[in-house]
Amino acid sequence: MSFGTLIRSPASIADFFCALVVFEIVRRRGSLRTAVACGAGVALSPVLIATSGYHGNTDAVAVTFALAAAYLLADRKAPLAAGVAAALCISVKFIPVVVIPALFVVALRGGRPVFVRFTAGFAALIALVWGPVLVTVPENLKENVLEYAGGNYRLWGLVRFADVLGLPEPFIAFIRGEGHFLFVLICVAVGVWLAWVRPAQLPGVVAVTMGLLLLLSTASALQYLTWAAAAMFVIGFWEGLAYSCLLGWTAVLGYQGRSAVRWSETVLQLGAAGWFVLAIGLVTGVRKILAAPPDAPSPTSAERASVTAPRASQPSGSAVK
């Protein structure tokens, strides 16, 4: 196998499994037809095809593990495996760290045994993967991972709009520098709040949190569009379709340019339109999460309950019409 194939394989394989995870998440909360459509939407998303199959960036792997952690914890009731998946997601890329507090909140609400097993799985893998780094090169970890702020290009979202509106340079420098931690904290706070009030909707909470991180991101790169590609299909089919079509077009045109970090005017305009599509989808996602009953069982759980529940006996001699 060529190096080009090998470097694209992890993200492409992750997208395949992400499609299955999204299918299962949606199936437990909606119809089978919608679940199939959302799973297929992930598999055929132009955003993921461009970023995974062409660029080969591993953001898709991190997002897959983040959604898998939510699915394992909330739907499969497998906290140990969920903790391992949560640790894996931030070990591939640190970006999904914004969803980790929400995962811990749901584990805590599940009771002491659930919280202990989730924490054990998370801590064991973190110690294995991050332990040697913390011991040997803590400063490199701090500077190159924890404090990484992305490139200096003004191509996306808040920084792009601030530049277009002619806002003062010190303000733009602040939101791109130390101020970007404020937006990260907002994402964490929203995720924790939603997870606390609707723990059964944890996969949707993770999807909204990852999408909000992209919406408020003060850095820009085409592969960042991956953060919300599968997540929007967790929120809903039409939200995912709108996002994938518009920002998939953005990604494809961006990668066809002379440089993926220097967007053409067309790509900039598509990106701006996609930002608003993402914002609308996130509002819809939050409304759907809050509209769900606090402890709504998944359809599969309800079906099992209806099968095992005893039926009332018919009176002797009665006829059934």
Automatic annotation (TrEMBL):
Top-level lineage group: Bacteria
Annotated TM spans: 6-25, 32-50, 81-108, 114-135, 181-197, 204-225, 231-255, 267-286
Signal sequence annotation: none
UniProt feature, compositional bias: Polar residues: 311-321
Keywords of this entry: Membrane, Transmembrane, Transmembrane helix
Region (Disordered): 293-321
Keyword Transmembrane helix: yes
UniProt-recorded name of the protein: DUF2029 domain-containing protein
Lineage, broadest ranks: Bacteria, Bacillati, Actinomycetota, Actinomycetes, Kitasatosporales
